[in-house]
Amino acid sequence: MTNHELISGLNNQLNREVATFLRYMLQAASIKGAQWQNVREMYQAEVTDEVGHAQYLADQITMLGGVPALRPDLSPPPADVREMLNNDMREEEADVRNYTKLAALAEQEGHFALKMKMEEQAADEDSHRQEMQRLSG
Length: 137
Ligand SMILES: [Fe+2]
Ligand SMILES: [Fe+2]
Fold this sequence. Notes:
Layout: H1 3-30, H2 37-63, H3 81-108, H4 112-136
Helix pairs in contact: 1-2, 1-3, 2-4, 3-4
The chain binds fe (ii) ion (2 copies).
């Protein structure tokens, strides 16, 4: 029944993850200035985390009988570093909420490994948000 809702929720989050790792990759590439070196390194490191999240979601969509459909938001990222950080803190917060909902849905459907992994990914996003907050001073 709601397997459809779960698959579509996972697919929506997959698109958010793909948009995120592309955005972080471009932001890391565009940041200049010694004072922002830590922010640049943070974005570089988080690309790998977000790719891992996307990969897990794509695998699970397939496992549940769905087909991953990619139409990520490809809007150009902000040029200003503070704007990047503020924007991404909001996005990370939204990701935490999405993963919390996906965990509840997975539990309802009896997918316990998926439920745990969604909670783990929620925790990763919360750590990303905290790190951004620390770097934004
Ligand atoms: Fe992520
Ligand atoms: Fe994140």
